[in-house]
């Protein structure tokens, strides 16, 4: 009898896993957290200086592009030639 009770308890708990809405809510929360880890923000639209990392539910995760300082090559000219 105990074994039957344990077996039924196991079957009941496995079959009643997290529901689909709870799973979606958890996935959206994880995506928002990942977006914050890359210093992004979930907002309706990204600005021109941002790129879409991925989507947090419906809205994109906008991350600011890294600023790269322009490389300036020094031009050396010989003004005086002998």
Notable characteristics:
alpha+beta, 82 residues, three-stranded antiparallel sheet, single chain, 2 helices
Topology record:
Blueprint: H1 2-15, H2 20-37, E1 40-42, E2 50-56, E3 59-64
Antiparallel strand pairs: 1-3, 2-3
Structure overview:
With 82 residues, the chain is α+β, with helices and mostly antiparallel strands. It has a domain at 33-68. The protein is 39% helix and 20% strand. The protein has helices at residues 2-15, 20-37, and strands at 40-42, 50-56, 59-64. Strands 1-3-2 form a 3-stranded antiparallel beta sheet, covered by helices on one side. The longest helix is centred in the middle third of the chain and has 18 residues, at 20-37. The model has no long low-confidence stretch (mean pLDDT 78). Residues 34-62 form the Beta-defensin domain. Has antibacterial activity. Keywords: Antibiotic, Antimicrobial, Defensin, Disulfide bond, Secreted, Signal.
